[in-house]
Design a protein that fits this description.
Length: 1300
């Protein structure tokens, strides 16, 4: 066995717990033979390969981290995976499936490729090669990929000093394709195709004639082999060579075939006992047993927050010198270059407090120092109008320093980490995607003490950022010659020492202080919502899944559907509730209802978010319901608004309520009881309809088997006043006679019974009606015949009984009663909230005055708030203002984390500590939180805290990757979904519904209240809801400052579109223009600067907002760099937000053919959008696409169409959208259009009462909408008919009451 610098980790998964994934026996051979060729001293010459066979998710995470973290700069690392891979379109991520993967929860139970990329990026090995033998594996390198045959030139690789330790990926297939699974021709090894080609090529010397084989050689060979064998192009290998070491020696080419050891019978068991897997299993078991150490976790987050605060600092150059920063412009640069161990601290540098003058906490005594070179000047923009104002100063690179005395007693600053990019500088100069990518991939790569290498790396960074050297950079002789006079962006030959302090550091400092205090009080975490988050409290909750003895009545001041009620009830009873609130599903309404419900129950509630607008929206809603219901506190501005609110409440208290809260509460509970009874009645009726449908199908099957015409069965005892009882008596008689023996005159009795059935059917005129089958006259009648007839007659008896009861049901009356009761509940909730608020304010006058005085003197915030909370139960605050609340466990009964996907995990932990229960609500498919720290800084914080990347990933607690929503989703119960959408036109909502939410949303938008769509460039009739203005010859170019991207041809087309919209839309209609690039936004914003109807911005501008019509300008074109195009196309969250801001119309302006060839949401949008103006084919209007129709539903529609045709209806069309809503049939009769909704009943697990309500709502949305033109006459829908499926099977008698 060799002992050198070549190491490999082989991971394979052949068996899966889930039945959805088929086993892959070839993986066992893959691992064995790949290991054999790599360890062979003639071929791979690798050290003994580490292997992990059949790992769980946790085991694979630990195995990958342990292997890559152990690598040294002089080593080569090879990582190989064989098994299932699955690409998730909802989050645009590839997942490697492990033994315990749950297909319903890939993010929480599979290994994300993003984790592998992060670990490879931080791995110190000089050369890294990754071989992925799984489906969709190409998606891991999308955006980096140079795909194609060897003759296709790769993009030029940047200098190795800037990106020295790149990763060379070779994957088995394209991004969204299955890998070719068959073994290579002539191979008897039993491997997969991809691995088999590698093994056979290496052991037979086919890849290259002599010498070392590089990854390029291997890729060329694999491509040639699969091309020769006819493997489809999309199933051929993909490579990534960006930032990779091109000359990496992968293996040697042998001159003669090498024999490999055969696969042993116990290979699987041996692989499971490998040291690497056993070590990973030990770490995973310890993690499962002990969880994440809370003290370590809190300190990890504190360090990450501190690094983020420093990385965002760009102090005012003139006002901040020697206060917020120190300019180091004498001598030589020694810290980043590694030429010296420390620098002497400036004399006036702020020192850490000794703890006696502050709060006494560790955070209060901490003072952070951050050093960097070179200095960058950034003139700030004035209001976005192009005028330059103050000049900001920050270092390009940043490195944390520690203050300590040296041997001579001088205060010196020593580096405590590695240099990383100043994210505040990068984000100012690049678009969000480019900035995030650069921060994530950059790492220092110069040798310690080699300032020439450092300078070269710095200059390459400056070139990428478009920054000039305003004076020559020379680390050997720092200078301040230009830095204090420069008025333009650029680099200066000076170093900068940042000292976070003042207002910009106060919020972070308070949060860090809270985290560190909690880390010393971990015993107090028990029983808090923080405990539930870290321990999976929803799964541990004692009997909370059952109905509590005194269930909390939801107090919802507005309409509240069942999914919203479920979230409210869970938040009131469960220690941790996680809810997903897609766009337009009433998330803010739910949070408001949670507040009113808590207040009504006498419980305290805190609403918090990183997003100030989200908190303000809830505060305004509560204030509109009842002033004083919820107090908004927080930063200086919020405290001033709180003081003004208190002054108004004290000066003009609400008048006495008409009725007291006890009276209103009693009526509300009684009304809730009535609503529950109506819901139970609806569920019972729907249950009867389901039973009838089953009975009619059963009757039809039985009658067919007997060759018995249904009309004869239906005619039996039809003239009898009570046709049900005779059927029952005859069925009982038939069963008895069927079993009668000969001495009991069985044959005679059976004949008599059969004759009785035949005679019970009313006689038809000669030749009319069907004839009885031959068995009706057969004597003796067989016993089996009587048994079969007894069965079908029993079904007929139950059918008649249920039909009779069902025909007495007043469906319209039930519908109206439910609507009336729902409205009454809403009104009573408002009245109760106002009564409670008025009563509370009357009791709290003294404490309100105390609070007002505390706000005026700017002291005593925490005590006055806590005192007032005894009466005023509802509070709202941003996560940045946590210092306003006393740090006490279980201070609140409930905390609501709103827009949780935008909140970092540490931002919410102190709030969860202050509460007994938590509701974490957000949408991971919309904008996420922006971490603001580099991978190097996160790794440093993690290492310092003693945590592992695998552990944090497994629990989804990684600071710069996961949000508070992810953490809650991983540790709470399955997330509840708000699934009724009311904002966007159905055609707009359907684009993201299927792609982002798995089609689980019910789109119930009332398009009658929306602005009609308008064609701004043509005469589309009707104008399309989803429109596309083609710009076939547009080209992207860098912005005016050399950064970001713009497309002037596309911008001009956008101008024409928006001007056309403004001219044709109603005067009060609003238009939004959104683009992913800042340069395009600035170009477009100048066009409508003074028009309030038009809002222009990037996607972040529109988060939480909406417009009648949205215009998308994606900018990218065929000449755009592939990496940039991929970034735009892959940002599912950005596209989701952009699309769902449009209420009535969405128009995209760009190259239609170009975007059709991309992937994800842009391609889907291009496919569903109709060309505006004359397209290539002359098409001017979109064609509505009805959804797929099941065979059973089509059969029901066929029968109903036959019935309507028999009634003389000829103007009819099927499966047609009306206003974007699906309609089964639409027909014209007597000049009026009727929309028909066939109701086959609720789906599996669906609440029957809710199903009926949703069907009624869907029908109500259709009335008055334009319809027809494709069979039915053009005109508005006059009425909507819900047709239960059983009525169609029952035939004309049951259908006539609906269409009579």
């Amino acid at each position: 066995m060799t002992d050198n610098d070549r190491h490999a980790l082989l991971v394979g998964v052949s068996t899966y717990d889930s039945e959805k994934y088929r086993d892959l026996p070839a993986v066992r051979a893959d691992l064995h033979y790949m290991r054999a060729v790599l360890e062979n001293t003639e071929i791979g010459m690798y050290n003994e390969c580490a292997s992990a066979a059949e790992p769980t998710r946790a085991e694979m995470l630990h195995a990958v981290e342990t292997f890559l973290e152990a690598r040294q700069p002089s080593e080569t690392a090879l990582l190989y995976f064989s098994g299932h891979g699955e690409y998730c379109e909802q989050d645009g991520q590839l997942y490697f499936l492990t033994r315990d993967t749950d297909p319903a929860d890939l993010p929480g139970t599979a290994v994300p490729a993003e984790f592998l990329e992060r670990m490879l990026q931080s791995c110190r090995a000089a050369s890294k090669l990754v071989l992925l033998d799984c489906c969709s594996s190409g998606s891991v390198v999308q955006g980096w990929t140079a795909k194609g045959p060897s003759g296709e030139p790769d993009r030029p690789a940047p200098s190795t000093l800037l990106r020295p330790t790149g990763v060379y990926f070779i994957t088995a297939s394209d991004a969204l394709q299955a890998a070719s699974a068959m073994a290579p021709p002539g191979s008897s090894l039993g491997t997969s195709r991809f691995t088999g080609e590698i093994v056979e090529g290496l052991r037979n010397g086919r890849i290259k004639e002599g010498g070392w084989i590089t990854p390029d050689d291997l890729f060329d060979y694999l491509t040639a082999q699969m091309t020769r064998d006819g493997v489809p192009e999309e199933q051929r290998p993909t490579k990534s060579t960006i930032r990779a070491t091109r000359s990496l020696p992968f293996a040697r080419s042998v001159a003669r075939p090498v024999r490999l050891p055969a696969l042993p019978h116990d290979a699987t068991e041996a692989a499971r006992r490998s040291p690497a897997l056993l070590k990973a299993r030990e770490l995973a078991e310890a993690d499962e047993r002990d969880g994440v150490d809370r003290q370590q976790l809190l300190r990890y987050y504190a360090d990450c927050l501190t690094a983020q605060a420093a990385a965002g600092m760009r102090p005012d150059r003139d006002a901040g010198r020697d206060k917020k920063y120190f300019l180091l412009a004498r001598g030589e640069e020694t810290v980043q270059s590694g030429r010296g161990p420390h620098i002497v601290a400036p004399r006036s540098l702020p020192r850490p407090q000794d703890g006696r003058t502050g709060s006494g906490t560790e955070a209060a005594s901490r003072q952070e120092y951050w050093y960097g070179y070179p200095a960058i000047t950034l003139p700030a923009r004035d209001g976005g109008r192009g005028r330059r104002a103050t000049v900001e100063l920050a270092p390009l690179l940043i490195q944390q320093m520690e203050l300590a005395p040296d041997e001579e007693g001088r205060d010196v600053l020593r580096p405590s980490g590695v240099p990383s990019l100043h994210s505040g500088v990068v984000s100012e100069l690049l678009d969000a995607g480019d900035a995030a990518d650069l921060v994530a991939r950059w790492q220092p790569a110069w040798q310690e003490g080699n300032d020439a290498q450092m300078l070269r790396a710095v200059r390459e960074l400056l070139e990428e950022l478009g920054l000039p050297e305003l004076e020559p950079l020379d680390p050997s002789a720092l200078s301040d010659r230009t830095v204090m006079q420069a008025l333009r962006p650029g680099a200066h030959n000076a170093a900068v020492l940042l000292v976070p302090s003042g207002a910009e550091a106060m919020a972070t400092q308070a949060l860090v202080d809270n985290l560190l205090q909690i880390s010393t009080r971990t015993a107090q975490i028990a029983g808090t919502a923080l405990d539930a988050l870290l321990n999976g409290g929803a799964r541990q909750a004692p009997a909370t899944t059952a109905t509590p003895a005194n269930p909390v009545t939801p107090i919802a001041p507005g309409p509240c559907n069942e999914s919203q009620e479920q979230v409210i009830s869970s938040a009131m009873t469960q220690p941790l509730t996680v809810a997903t609130g897609p766009p337009g599903t009433g998330k803010s309404e739910v949070v408001t209802a949670v507040v009113t419900t808590c207040v009504a129950a006498g419980q305290s509630v805190l609403v918090a978010s990183t997003n100030n607008e989200a908190v303000d929206v809830v505060a305004r809603r509560c204030d509109d319901i009842a002033p004083g219901l919820l107090m908004r506190t927080g930063n200086k501005e919020a405290l001033e608004r709180e003081a003004a609110a208190l002054e108004r409440l004290l000066a003009e208290p609400p008048g006495a309520p008409r009725r007291g809260s006890a009276t209103v509460g009693g009526e509300l509970r009684n009304t809730r009881g009535a609503a529950d009874r109506l819901r139970a009645e609806a569920a019972h009726r729907v249950g009867e309809e389901e039973r009838l449908l089953d009975l009619f199908r059963d009757r039809e099957e039985r009658a067919t088997a007997l060759e018995l015409p249904l009309s004869l069965l239906e005619g039996a005892w039809a003239a009898d006043a009570d046709g049900v009882a005779p059927l029952g008596r005859w069925a009982e008689r038939a069963r008895k006679t069927a079993g009668a023996r000969w001495w009991q005159l069985g044959a005679w009795r059976r004949g008599r019974a059969l004759a009785a059935l035949v005679s019970a059917v009313a006689e038809h005129p000669e030749g009319a009606g069907p004839a009885w089958p031959d068995w009706a006259a057969e004597r003796p009648a067989p016993p089996g015949l009587l048994e079969s007839l007894a069965g079908v007659v029993s079904v007929e008896r139950e059918v008649r009984e249920l039909v009779r009861r069902h025909e007495e049901w007043d469906e319209e009356g039930l519908k109206e009663s439910r609507l009336t009761t729902a409205g009454a509940l809403s009104d009573l909730s408002v009245e109760l909230s106002r009564a409670l608020s008025a009563e509370t304010l009357g009791r709290a006058t003294g404490l309100m005055n105390q609070r007002l005085q505390a706000l005026r003197r700017r002291s005593g915030y925490q005590r006055s708030q806590k005192n007032l909370m005894a009466h005023i139960k509802g509070w709202a605050v941003s996560t940045h203002s946590v210092r306003q609340l006393e740090l006490a466990p279980q201070l609140f009964d409930l905390v609501v984390i709103d827009e949780a996907s935008q909140c970092s995990i540490p931002a919410v932990l102190p709030l969860l500590f202050r509460a007994r229960r938590a509701l974490v609500i957000g949408d991971p498919m919309q904008l996420g939180h922006i971490p603001g720290v580099s991978p190097q800084q996160e790794r440093q914080a993690r290492t310092r805290a003693g945590l592992s990347a695998a552990q944090l990933e497994h629990h989804r607690l990684t600071y710069h990757v996961h949000s508070s929503y992810h953490a809650g989703e991983q540790h709470g119960d399955r997330a509840l979904l708000l699934d009724e959408h009311y904002r966007c036109h159905p055609r707009i909502a359907d684009v993201v519904n299927g792609h982002c939410y798995g089609g689980r949303l019910r789109v119930l938008t009332d398009v009658r209240r929306q602005v009609p769509a308008h064609d701004p460039v043509g005469a589309g009739v009707p104008p399309p809801v989803l429109g596309w203005v083609n710009v076939p010859f547009g080209e992207s170019a860098r912005g005016g400052d050399g950064q970001s991207w713009r497309n002037t041809v596309e911008a001009e087309a956008v101008r024409r579109v928006v001007d056309g919209l403004l001219a044709g839309l109603p005067p009060d209609a609003t238009v939004g223009v959104v683009t992913p690039f800042r340069a395009q936004k600035e170009n477009l914003a100048r066009m409508w600067r003074d028009d309030d109807r038009v809002r222009v911005g990037t996607v972040h501008t529109f988060q939480g907002g909406q417009r009648d019509v949205m215009v998308l300008s994606p900018v990218a074109a065929p000449n755009t760099p592939p990496r940039t195009t991929h970034w735009v196309a892959s940002q599912v969250n950005l596209w989701n937000v952009a699309i769902t801001r449009a209420k009535s119309q969405l128009i995209t302006v760009g190259g239609h053919a170009f975007w059709q060839d991309q992937s994800g949401l842009p391609a889907l949008l291009a496919a569903r959008s109709a060309p505006l103006g004359a397209g290539d084919d002359g098409t001017t209007a979109e064609a509505d696409r009805p959804g797929p129709v099941t065979e059973a539903r089509a059969d029901l529609a066929d029968r109903l169409q036959q019935y309507l045709t028999g009634r003389g209806v000829t103007d009819l069309e099927r499966a047609v959208p009306v206003g974007g809503h699906p309609v089964d049939l639409l027909f014209t009769d007597a000049g009026e259009n009727t929309a028909v909704l066939i109701d086959p009943g609720p789906g599996p697990g669906e609440d029957p009462a809710r199903h009926l309500r949703l069907t009624h709502v869907q029908g109500d949305l259709l009335t008055g909408l334009p319809s027809g033109g494709c069979g039915a006459k053009p005109g508005p829908v006059s009425r909507t008919v819900r047709v239960p499926a059983w009525r169609i099977l029952a035939g004309e008698t049951a259908l006539a009451p609906l269409f009579g």
